[in-house]
Amino acid sequence: xxxxxxxxxxxxxxxxxxxxxxxxxxxxxxxxxxxxxxxxxxxxxxxxxxxxxxxxxxxxxxxxxxxxxxxxxxxxxxxxxxxxxxxxxxxxxxxxxxxxxxxxxxxxxxxxxxxxxxxxxxxxxxxxxxxxxxxxxxxxx
Length: 141
What we know:
2 domains, 5 helices, mainly alpha
């Protein structure tokens, strides 16, 4: 049974790594970056749906559920992973817009450094809140 659990864990990882490799190859060959990002998001959604449709994939990660329902524990871990991942993506998008603007504002007026640093930190706060929520979810199980 251990081989089956390994296969169930390896399939989503292999699929996501393969999609990253294909997107990298597509960008190197001249495809637009927006298309590559959309491909990455679509592959993430497909793997997420597969994990929800086939809960064995989630249960395979939780072999040591001491006294807990392994399905509920697996779904809790999936929820913690989604909270961290999606908030990390949102924080990255926020910092991607705020950091270049902060650098530009600081280069024009060095006194604006403190104000611009606050906006960059607000974007990072989104990721920290997601991490906090996932820690709270993991402590529940």
